[in-house]
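Homework help board

Subject: predicted structure for assignment chain

Our instructor gave us this sequence and asked us to write out the predicted structure in token form, then describe one feature. I got the tokens but I'm not sure how to describe them. Can anyone check?
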Amino acid sequence: MGMDLHKILDTTVPNTSIKRCMLKNVNEQKLEDLIEHNLKSLENMIDYNLNNEIKLFRISSDIIPFGSSEANTVLWHDLFNSQFHTIAEKIKTGGIRVSMHPGQYTVLNSSDSNVVKKAIDDLQYHADFLDSIETDYTNKIVLHVGGVYGDKEMAIKRFAKHLGYLNDSIKKRLVIENDDRSYSICDVLELGRKYNIPVVYDNLHNSVNCCDVSKDDCYWIMECANTWNKGDGKQKIHYSQQDESKKVGSHSPSIMINEFLGFYNNLGDDKPDIMLEVKDKNLSAIKCMNCIAERKKPKALEVEWSRYKYAVLEHSPNDYVKVRNLLKDKKAYPAIEFYNIVENALNVCPSKGNSINAALHIWGYFREVAEEREKKAFFKNIEAFNEGLKPLSAIKKFLWKMAEKHNNEYLLSCYYFNKGL
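My token output:
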């Protein structure tokens, strides 16, 4: 099974940012600098995946800025050949399967010929990039069918017609996915079967835009499985959960483990690759992987606790104590119970006192090495926060800079600094 980190990694993984620029600022040197930076970030992401045994990863379409635009005249395939090869070797060594997902403006079934041309150019860019990192055709480009334009039947016919404009390098990578507005899983399956295109099932999209409520996730996953041929690799699906605080179809901040396990355990023995679409990205990926792991590694929970502990302390000192007691037995592997406690803690709104307490624990790493002016600045921030004059983010930003200054890898990988927790 695989997990998707959904474009970019969480902010607690250093040096994985993807940089962009505005069209008016584009020039060759700027683009070369951005591409070099982004490819290095991608390599760091792959390294993270290797270290955490994550085998499925979606690469951001923004990896090459303006990759399908005439504004980008950089011969990036050749210029960065060495970096591409290094990334390719790491992907192969780790057995990682990658994919890309063009954005909302890549609409193949548009009635506007200019939009269609841009869509084809964009799909070609994605195929070229996946070729550049030496991946085979099991590494896919995921596409939505597009718009309805007032006549769904005609829009579907246009999609089929425009498929004929694509070359084999795109066709062999293309997979299509149901969406939450226009094209249900029934629509997409009909297209997939007719034109021999693998179908990706998205559970949250289906819950919003369902064509047959009598059929469950497992039924649709089995139907989609039949569209995947041997050369396409293992079937892939998208899994996400609803953010209860936002509009229907919005991805949740984190994957709730009990809900995920209920879904996962119903899939039977021959499970597909599962891509998580979730805001906290790698945090949920590792959580789910630890809870379904066949090889139980107690050390993995200790590593996770080292990452979560100060975030938990900030939200709920009581749950902090519960986890410490839970993990006293170094031979046990209470993964599900561990994550249930963590999830419960992170759902608690932190009090001002608990926030200050956690910040002081982090400050303890710098107490002996901080300069006098830094000590004054820290406690001035604490006082201002306590009096309601500054947000907690000001304290965290200061502590993050201290962690970077002293290259404290332990703190730099700590989820305390994650804005979504």
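Reply (TA_rk): Your tokens look well-formed. For the description, you could write something like this. The chain has a mean pLDDT of 95. That's the kind of observation they're looking for.
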